[in-house]
Amino acid sequence: MKIEEYGIGNVRSHVRYFRNILNVLPSRYSYLDSQRLVIAQFALGGLSFLGAIDQLQNKEEFIEWIYSLQSPHGGFFGSKIMKELPSHLAKPHIASTFAAVQCLILLGDELDRIHIPELLSWIKSLMNPDGSFQGAADASEPTDLREFTYCAAFLIHIFGTSNFSDEDRKRAVQYIISCQSPDTAFGQVPGAEGHGALTFCALASLKFFGCLHSDEGVLSAAELKRIVRFCVNRQSEGIHGRPHKPDDTCYTFWTCAALKLAQPSIDISEKLDKERVLSFVRSCVDENIGGIKKLNAKNQYADATHSYFALAGLGVIFDDVMPEYMLKKDLTKRVLRIRNRVKESKLDSSNSLLSRAGNLALSVSFAILSVYATYLLREPLTSA
Amino acid sequence: MLKRHIKNFQIWHHRQVLCEWANDGSREKAMTELIFKQDQKNYHAWQHRQWVVKRFGLFEGEIDFARELLVKDVYNNSAWNHLYFCIQNSTGWSEEIRKSELSFVQEKLEVAIDNECAWNYLRAVQNHILTANPQLADKFVSKLEVIEDRGNSHKHLAAYVADYLAEKTERDSDKESGTKAVQIYTELSSNLDPVRRNYWNYLSSCLSAKI
């Protein structure tokens, strides 16, 4: 379904809204300066969902800016300020890294300038003994199933498991399961309240780790049905994240994506009232500046987060967005191509390593044989 | 600073680190209660409280605290979750405690039968096996039958009864229960919970196919 058919107000005003974000933001956003990459992801992602990313003329400039934030030791800083902190404070962050890779994919980059071995080694360094992940190597934030496990799982899925053993994967999966709350949704940490967004992060991470709907699946059919029930119950008119909380446009993505991941073969219209969700999102469109608000209230403005996730959610409902990737389906094909290329290049390099080793062995053997042959064929000391 | 930025992860974590360094969590419960005055369901404050309570073994009074909050607002999902968390991590779930919690939640359902949190809690206390407690389930079956004017507020009761009967059908190949369950799913779809009509129709067809 095309975005114009969703009927969410003036599409051009939403495009203008996201393009403005890429230029300059009001001062109330200054506290997010350290996470510019995340804001960029929301803006570029929003443009992608609106089918308008090709309107950008300066994609190369953006790509260069993103790569400028890559740490030579793996990962991406959230912004120039974060990179230029004193070296003991400057730390790349897993959410920024996720956002960087998302942005590069959205801008058509082939991810061929990512320092993959350093990236994977850095991600591994963020993993705690209990299977959770820190955001940065300074433990300045609590472990967070929401962002950090999901971001790590996404990155490992694309760039490979060289630093990530089967034991590591099992520990990560064990941690995810330990975050399941009594109402069968997932919380931020073990014991925490079940929450729509964290349920998405849990299911998407399990999928990336190969433990959802697979031979190694850790959630039974009955458990998945209960998760579906939790998600389905999250609709009032629009969608909310926890029982008896108000509807909020960002849960359009979190809950619908979780639903889709829990039962992929079933259409979302079999579970939710699509029209009511659309109607709620429509009511939250910011008629003044474009974009989408968190809720339908007079003192609310549109913001990047809710605009992005509302559109992503509609994309999931109308089967245009791959839930675990947060990307349109036509982009995920490219992601898989890149993933295969990364895999093959590791095979190639290990093959060429083998062939080089083989060549060396052959050369050495030949040299030894030559010497021996020369020895055998030499004139006897005592020739007649 | 925390009072001005109650949804900022880093500040909460910073506070947690300070508690660790000082090896002192004695002020934290009161601090979270200040935040609950602004926002009863603040996710970070609840998480912090749970961390403090577990880290410093401060479970005393927590179950009562959760119950008091449920008197003020029976729909407070965070308080229900906290209640479960405290029992899980202090007394544990003995048969006696399960029984008394089942009583507690039934009391709360008398206050508000449309309370999803209470129904979720009820299911959690039973480990999501509704046929484990047939006496309790049969009470709800009778209750649903008796209500003539069934409306939206009865949707969770109806869902519970239908799920129980569906579970019974699978377990005992009991066609009569299956038929009743299908009827209730259909009623949910057409009348009690039309927002989720497609979902209830789907469950109804899946079950019909099995009986």
Automatic annotation (TrEMBL), chain A:
Its cofactor is Zn(2+). Gene3D superfamilies: 1.50.10.20. InterPro entries: PGGT1B-like, Prenyltrans, Terpenoid_cyclase/PrenylTrfase. Residues 11-318 form the Prenyltransferase alpha-alpha toroid domain. Keywords: Metal-binding, Prenyltransferase, Repeat, Transferase, Zinc. Belongs to the protein prenyltransferase subunit beta family. This is Geranylgeranyl transferase type II subunit beta. It comes from Oikopleura dioica. The lineage of its organism: Eukaryota, Metazoa, Chordata, Tunicata, Appendicularia.
From TrEMBL, chain B:
InterPro entries: Prenyl_trans_a. The keyword Repeat applies. Keywords: Magnesium, Prenyltransferase, Repeat, Transferase. Belongs to the protein prenyltransferase subunit alpha family. Pfam families: PPTA (PF01239). This is Protein farnesyltransferase/geranylgeranyltransferase type-1 subunit alpha. The keyword Magnesium applies. Its cofactor is Mg(2+). Its EC number is 2.5.1.58, 2.5.1.59. It comes from the Eukaryota. It is an enzyme of class 2 (transferase).
